[in-house]
Write a structure and sequence with these properties.
The chain is mostly beta strands. Helix content is about 10%, strand content about 40%.
Length: about 210
């Protein structure tokens, strides 16, 4: 990973190109973030930076956390995340990172927590088909076969009803359509996981298409 930033999903919109083509975009408020801690291979065994995003009252965090921010000389942040980077020489503690860390046309990977949908059956959760609804089949929306006969157990990975959503999801190779550095906005083509106001992580694409 070369660079990253934290942000907040504001919602979806659309923009038009000069040729009149419509592009669906997700608007992300990216930054401003502050570097809280810097780690290197000599002292910590790996290269990384610790980044904070979002304002919060100091009374809403614990005292050790407040001391961590005070030591770095940065305002108290709501979210703190650590990113392992190939090179951290260009970062310093207290440095402010804004949306212009990414440029228009770049490919990025966006990570967020998907919307939670509660307890769901196999048809909704895994898109399974249902049984006949007539002629007394007595089997309509069941999970189907559970595997081998006489196994006396359910195999791991079996598609069964359960909690749906609320998972960490990464969408790869999204194109940055526009960057508004003044308002700290990044517009990426396509959809991004999570609800409006959810925390998102934007990183340079690890499998960028050429």
């Amino acid at each position: 990973m070369k660079k990253a930033i934290l942000g907040k999903k504001l919602g979806m919109s659309q923009i038009f190109t000069s040729e009149g083509q419509v592009i669906p975009v997700t608007v992300i408020e990216a930054g401003p973030c502050h570097v809280i801690q810097k780690k290197n291979a000599e002292n910590d065994g790996y290269n990384a930076i610790q980044m904070g995003f979002g304002s919060v009252k100091e009374s809403h965090i614990k005292k050790p956390q407040a001391g961590h921010f005070q030591k770095a000389g940065v305002p108290v942040k709501k979210y703190v995340r650590e990113f392992r980077l190939a090179d951290v020489s260009g970062y310093e503690v207290g440095q402010e990172i804004k949306a212009d860390v990414f440029a228009e046309g770049e490919q990025v990977d966006v990570t967020a927590i998907s919307k939670g949908k509660g307890f769901a059956g196999t048809i909704k959760r895994f898109r399974q088909g249902r049984g006949p609804m007539t002629h007394g089949s007595h089997y309509h929306r069941g999970p189907g076969s559970l595997g081998a006969v006489g196994a006396s157990r359910v195999f791991k990975g079996q598609t069964l009803p359960g909690r749906m959503g609320g998972d960490k999801v990464t969408v790869q190779n999204l194109k940055v359509v526009k960057v508004d550095a003044e308002r700290n906005l990044i517009l990426v083509k396509g959809a991004v996981p999570g609800p409006r106001g959810g925390l998102v992580t934007i990183k340079n694409a690890v499998k960028a298409k050429r």
